Amino acid sequence: xxxxxxxxxxxxxxxxxxxxxxxxxxxxxxxxxxxxxxxxxxxxxxxxxxxxxxxxxxxxxxxxxxxxxxxxxxxxxxxxxxxxxxxxxxxxxxxxxxxxxxxxxxxxxxxxxxxxxxxxxxxxxxxxxxxxxxxxxxxxxxxxxxxxxxxxxxxxxxxxxxxxxxxxxxxxxxxxxxxxxxxxxxxxxxxxxxxxxxxxxxxxxxxxxxxxxxxxxxxxxxxxxxxxxxxxxxxxxxxxxxxxxxxxxxxxxxxxxxxxxxxxxxxxxxxxxxxxxxxxxxxxxxxxxxxxxxxxxxxxxxxxxxxxxxxxxxxxxxxxxxxxxxxxxxxxxxxxxxxxxxxxxxxxxxxxxxxxxxxxxxxxxxxxxxxxxxxxxxxxxxxxxxxxxxxxxxxxxxxxxxxxxxxxxx
Amino acid sequence: xxxxxxxxxxxxxxxxxxxxxxxxxxxxxxxxxxxxxxxxxxxxxxxxxxxxxxxxxxxxxxxxxxxxxxxxxxxxxxxxxxxxxxxxxxxxxxxxxxxxxxxxxxxxxxxxxxxxxxxxxxxxxxxxxxxxxxxxxxxxxxxxxxxxxxxxxxxxxxxxxxxxxxxxxxxxxxxxxxxxxxxxxxxxxxxxxxxxxxxxxxxxxxxxxxxxxxxxxxxxxxxxxxxxxxxxxxxxxxxxxxxxxxxxxxxxxxxxxxxxxxxxxxxxxxxxxxxxxxxxxxxxxxxxxxxxxxxxxxxxxxxxxxxxxxxxxxxxxxxxxxxxxxxxxxxxxxxxxxxxxxxxxxxxxxxxxxxxxxxxxxxxxxxxxxxxxxxxxxxxxxxxxxxxxxxxxxxxxxxxxxxxxxxxxx
Lengths: 410, 410
Description:
The structure is a homodimer.
Chain A: H1 15-22, E1 25-26, H2 27-34, H3 38-50, E2 54-59, E3 69-73, E4 79-84, E5 88-94, E6 100-107, H4 114-128, E7 138-143, E8 147-148, E9 153-154, H5 168-176, E10 180-184, H6 185-196, E11 205-210, E12 214-220, E13 223-224, H7 255-258, H8 261-274, H9 278-287, H10 292-300, H11 304-328, E14 332-336, H12 344-357, H13 360-363, E15 367-370, H14 377-396, H15 404-408
Helix pairs in contact in A: 2-3, 6-14, 8-9, 8-11, 10-11, 11-12
């Protein structure tokens, strides 16, 4: 199903994509990069200016020839990026460069079903940018489930009642009156890091999200690889070394049974109840439950049992990633999601195991690092998907209605 | 390094690629598929005919319109495909459709070094087609090592003295006087299955070779994915479940320590010496050593210990492949290499474990099957690489010398 639509590439022919990806550029450089004459670029820029999509950005320092005016994207372009998690909704409004201008996040339970969740999405977007001000020209949205990218639907086996094959794209687009693009939540985080984070300019990398569960975004030759059923990167149920823990999926020894927010909270309770961790015992008594953040706090306070839990987590995920490094030979692994905040100990453990367990050649050019965008990775990537859709549609039909609102509200 | 050169895609603009990939075609269909007029196609075909690259193939049955002549590739086009294994050299001569016309294989030890091995390659090719008859217009070659595809060199850490960064492409090309393309041995097998075997028309699949060692060819969107260091698909050292066997690489529990020709031969000796397997005990006494083929023969003769060894091998490789199915969500896994001949028991065990251990969504559209080309997968894929190089070079410069020999020797 999914997987075919092009969402990567620099789009050297597209003025809008060039400006988005490289920032404001002198007219001369725009012409060079597009391989067309300066007068042709001048005409194209003038047309975009009339539509309110680009603006003048002053004069570039002369390089000896004619002075060249700098072209910028209009300040009035707005995209919305939405990141639906298992327990939260995040919404960002970005400018034309997919830089976040405004961001809100609220708790939500994805199990409430698509109608309730998408209603909140509409409210949050219109709360941030009332349509009467500067309406968004496109929305990108990630959901914590496999997605049929070409159909804009989630394909969900368990745990998300009402979401299976729900036409997210079409219904949300109808409600908001702008195009919507839907992808998996980890894929949009990978896109965010690729276009605005630590994976800028990196063609082949993995984005590993460690949140409640564990998932992976795969970027091959500058494009997200989604697999034939839209579920590529579902690494949470790969067998983790010699683990024999029962996973919620019914199998033995899955990565998610050993690590991730849910597993860590469970292990923390065991540590608290056994008395291994005085810190966690105290905390459990105080608040009645424990989370991954409590383990992080315990570790920071020098609690040995908490440190052991984090190292164990780093070890099992490192083993799985080592296998994927052998298989995929990426140049980078970016670690994100809530548990990436557990700190340098987790990263160090993962790095160590990956270096030990992968073949030396596969790690020659490999770096393993933390997300550069943190909480904003998903919404940034979602906004980028929205921009990609907008620019592709505009380049196909330059006089589309989609472009009109930007100019009118300027 | 590697990984960038384009070796896939149908090349809808290229007459030669269209004919190679789709077989002889009526002139009318050629025009339709290229999206150009019949008179333009007629001119192009006439030019190719003058160069001796295509020939007339009779009249196509009329579809109501004008009768349309069938265009075929010239019978005189010859490619050579070379498959260098750890212990053998295979050389095939193919026609322009990459169909094998002639094939020889001989024992060889890759540790003899590149000079000795490549000298044999030259002898074998010129033995099959003396340059005075119909010279080959291109050679493709696979080596059992990571390859820098763009440089045409092998990049070999251990076990292959003399091969590290050896300029295979340039030296062999000089010796033979035709272009040479070099790739990893498993990648060429994947290419063979994609263009002439059971993966025809399949965009995203894995080719798993189980020979002395175990490797994997990865096809993403119709192209071989080679990784940033040219070593993608090196799955032999992925940790296999709860295994604690010491691998020759110095790590514990690698897939290759549990399965593959070397591991199986070692396990067979243990079974023979312990008396578990009367068949293998007898065989070891007779010939002094055991191979994977002996285990296959023992299993076929109803020897329970041999059956257990094969099932164990299927189990551990199935566990690793299940993880890769979750990660990569391919539509097909093709199993090849010498040990694929162990028969239906191995395939059944692998299929069973993959279905049990992968997520249900990832196996919805998955098939796991045996190589369609067997011993010829590698040489077929190597010849296809040669054809791709020839056609690309020809399409860039239609009047190249490379094309000339075909016509002249007709």
